[in-house]
């Protein structure tokens, strides 16, 4: 998905891995504050050289912990945004991980499928989707490195 920056140049946000790249689209209307937070962390290079610390086959691929073990975040929490039309978990959806309502910050997950993730609807904020390179999630292993960048 393309993001327009302040000078009108189109930018593409990608999750870069050794297995390939995944291009992202964001739910700006349905989860504006979550998207804003994520984009700011990308701009600040927060997501450089991290690992996918949690992979549960047929459920989720999770990353975004600065400690690379699921215990950390950016030093603050953001509120959940659960009212938009796109608040359902399906293959390729990006969603904010948290340890309880309104405790998310930087950890996110990508869903493998709808069947095993529909119980997360209206509990975790869906804020985007992988729109190119979705097959990469099937190749990832726990501990694989990634960076999120804009081009």
Please give a structural write-up.
With 151 residues, this protein is mainly beta. It has one domain (2-150): Cyclophilin-like (Cyclophilin), CATH 2.40.100. The chain is built from one helix and ten strands; from the N terminus they run βββαβββββββ. The chain has one helix at residues 32-43; strands spanning 2-4, 10-17, 20-26, 50-51, 54-56, 60-63, 93-96, 108-111, 126-132, 145-150. Strands 1, 2, 3, 4, 5, 6, 7, 8, 9 and 10 form a ten-stranded antiparallel β-sheet that branches. The longest helix has 12 residues, at 32-43. It is globular, with a radius of gyration of 14 Å. Mean pLDDT is 92; it is low at 1-10.
Give the helix proportion (percent range). Answer: under 10%
Judging by the overall fold, what is the CATH architecture?
Answer: Beta Barrel
Kindly state the mean pLDDT as a whole number? 92
What's the number of structural domains?
1
Note poorly predicted spans. Answer: 1-10
Supply the helix-strand structural class. mainly beta
Q: What is the number of E strands?
A: 10
**Terminus-to-terminus distance:** 11 Å
Instruction: Tell me the name of the CATH homologous superfamily.
Output: Cyclophilin-like
Biggest β-sheet description: 10 strands, antiparallel
**Beta strand %:** 25-35%
């Amino acid at each position: 998905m393309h993001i327009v920056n302040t000078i009108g140049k189109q930018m593409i946000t990608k999750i870069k891995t050794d297995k390939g790249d995944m291009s992202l689209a964001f739910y700006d209307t349905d989860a504006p504050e979550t998207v804003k937070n994520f984009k700011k962390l990308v701009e600040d290079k927060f997501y450089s050289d991290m690992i996918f610390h949690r992979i549960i086959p047929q459920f989720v691929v999770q990353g975004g912990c600065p400690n690379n073990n699921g215990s950390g975040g950016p030093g603050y929490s953001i509120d959940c945004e659960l009212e938009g039309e796109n608040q359902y978990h399906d293959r390729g959806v990006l969603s904010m991980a948290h340890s309880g309502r309104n405790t998310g910050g930087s950890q996110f997950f990508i869903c493998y499928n709808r069947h095993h993730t529909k119980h997360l609807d209206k509990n975790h904020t869906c804020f985007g989707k992988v729109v190119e390179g979705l097959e990469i999630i099937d190749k990832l292993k726990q501990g694989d490195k990634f960076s999120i960048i804009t081009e």
